[in-house]
Fold these 3 entries.
Entry 1:
Amino acid sequence: MNIDEFAKMFPDKMEEITAFVQGDTIKDIIGTEAVNHFKQSFVNEGFTDKTLEKWPEVERRKPESAWYKKGADSARKILSGPVKELQDSLTFQYIADGVKISSPKIYAPVHQFGETANVFGKKPFTMKARPFIGHSEVMKVNIENEIQTEIKKIIS
């Protein structure tokens, strides 16, 4: 395509780009990339903003701890219960100016922010914060790359 052909198509392409930016497709890209990035925190056992910040170690994996249990529990990843319930609960919803990432699990804030936890039959304790949702430069770049790819498809 030469510049004259592109100039004739430009108004139509701008309409497509405007529809893309103002529609749900861009929100789907943002939400999907964000949820995938935040789920990766559970795999990495830490949160990635510019670099990976590992979460504090859990007592169940420390042999000297009263919480230590030999076997599968001592090998399991942090915040990854037997069925990865918290990780799999992450979703996104459309909001007026973007998307909102959340988990319906009532214990999600306990892990995210480090709040008081009550374990059945145990004394309440303050959980160490293990953030898995938040601002991330790496995620921002991934989202920008996906959006650029889609815009290139529209203009080509």
Entry 2:
Amino acid sequence: MDEIKISLSAAGDENEITLIRVDGVIDTMTAAELEKVINSLLEQNRYKIIVDLAGVTYISSAGWGIFISNIREIRQQHGDLKLARMIPNVYEIFELLEFDSILKTFDDLDDAKRDFGESASDHGLSILTKLSPTMTEKGAGSVNSESAGTNGAVKTEEIKEPNKDKAFSTPSINLDKKIRSIIKRDPFLSINGIKKQLQSESYGESSVSWWDVFKWLYSHNLTSRKSRYHLSKKW
């Protein structure tokens, strides 16, 4: 069974930055644990988040979806979620899925911290969490909280289960037909390319967003151009 280890610490002059260190594999089985942690931070109004992925060897579509599902809310609160230290194999998929147009990435943690306009120094203050029972069990999904001093630490109430239906709801039948038509015509269009086609006069979906298109592709296992090409030949 795949395992994921998550540790939290605070950084920045006023400890306003949350550094999430993740080790292991972020897939369908383990992604929910990371999602709980991020949702918990947002409930505490901590909107400056850096995810250190140096110890992550694989991220599935479900894992990538976690990083962008709340990005609009985070930025509306004048924060951001930044990714740091991805290994080459993980970064290759990140680019393939075109998330580089949505999220900022950094090779160095200090660069990510500086991008928030904060000091690059890390005070090493742990964020002490009151974890739900499922997160303190050994094995898959366990979270390791460091035990440094409590000054500036953030206390977390029990972490609530996220509403997965909100993140991946079913698109309308009309939008479904239009996306299928666009992919059949040109399966190599990027996600932004599909969005622009939908927003054109020909399709009239002026309010459709990048995230709407991604949700549809995700629900049909078509997040890569290769998968869209193979399926378009069967339609």
Entry 3:
Amino acid sequence: MKNNDINILVVDDSPDAVEMLTRKLKNKGFNLFQASNVNMALNILENNNLHLVITDFKMPKISGLELIKHIRSNYKQIIVIMITGYPTIDGAVEAVKMGAEEYLTKPFTDKELFQAVDSAVNKINTTIISSSINKIPNTYGIIGGS
């Protein structure tokens, strides 16, 4: 999949953080959706085919951890990256246990952001390739993808 085929949802209660992430990722060609809270994110998840969610950890009312829990229960194919301005070891462990692929602490560099997103895109592509190979009927021998 090319970047312009990847749909990313950015969830953060800080409008500046949402704007910054959206701008940087759009410049790389990704399709972006935005939510300022978990309830908005849930609505977007229900109505769109998303590949990646980048969510803040600490938000009013419902946390990013609850969003991860919902995604893991209902959208297993979606990759999640957790970001936070309040990093703790316990928070990182909890996020990874819940199913976050990456845990970035604010302020993070463009390099750190793009490495995390590139890793997620590689995993998305690998999943798509392996699921399409598994759909090939009556195959014998060696099948590869590069």
